[in-house]
Give the backbone structure.
Amino acid sequence: MSKISQLGRVIVPVSDQDAAIAFYTDKLGFTVSMDVPYGEGDRWVEVTPPGGGSGIALSPGMGEFQPGRETGIALTTSDARSTHEELEQEGVEVEEPMGGDGGVPLLFMLKDMDGNGLMIVQEES
């Protein structure tokens, strides 16, 4: 039996890898952890959050896997309201925060430059 040890990365479809790199690094503070050519003219691009953890591979869309979808990705912050305000000031499309009232942590949704949906969740320390 195979033993899976951790989540390595998730893949998000993007229309332009350079524009996606700019969004994820400039707006969300990620770093480029990999950007290498492969195959016949393709690139493998990964970005990683500043605190570490699994990376996001920014891949051109293929077949039904196209930009503009909910990703199911939840990113963590220590202060959702402050992060929401900063991203809104940066021109990022964000929804109003919700939760934070006991059972559900404070969270909000955002869209990247291609309309891919991500969630920001406040994690209590």
Summary: The mean pLDDT is 94. The chain has two helices and eight strands. The chain has one domain: 9-122. The beta strands are 9-14, 31-38, 42-48, 55-60, 70-77, 93-94, 107-111, 117-122.
